Amino acid sequence: MFDMFSVDYIFGWFLGLLPTWLPWAIIGFGIVLFLLVQLFGKLVPLLYRCIIMCSCIVLIGLGSWAEGRQNILSEGAKEVEKVVVKEKIITKVVVQKYTEKVKEIEVVHDQIAEQINTKDDHMCDVPESFVRLHDSAAKNTISESSSATDGASSGVALSTVENTIIDNYELYHKVAEELSALQEWVSKQKELNP
After folding, report:
1. 73 vs 33, which has greater pLDDT?
2. Where are the alpha helices (DSSP H) in the chain?
3. Which of 19, 90, 154, 168 places its Cα 20 to 30 Å from the Cα of 3?
């Protein structure tokens, strides 16, 4: 069973497929038919004249209705196009701001990474328990029980640990900025399409 919305949707879809000149052709045909009946009405029996006149009225009405619906559809399509253009502009602005922020984060990361000093590696012996806990936190898993004595050397240089920590924080700042940009994008899209 069809409700009014689905029938209206089907008519709208069908009218969107028709060329824009067709409603005017239907109206023109109805007017020409009306004029022919008026000119040659004496030659056509009364019953047929009534049928032709009713057909003229139906054709003119149908053509006018179709023209009005096509105008509404074209206006709706223009509004949709305006919204799509605004959405693209919003996306472009947010992505540009995000890209600039990521470049700033990378510049700061590179400046911090330049300060890593391998001269201190011999002064600090990174324990295996630290490396194990750090790796467990990075993988989001619970570390296995200690396979070596606590405080035992891991063989990992302090500069390697520093570099890993700096890289992790850079990644954190990039993800935070990405989420911030996404929230801004969603907020502006909601303002555009409430």
Report:
1. 33
2. 4-17, 22-39, 46-113, 128-139, 158-192
3. 19
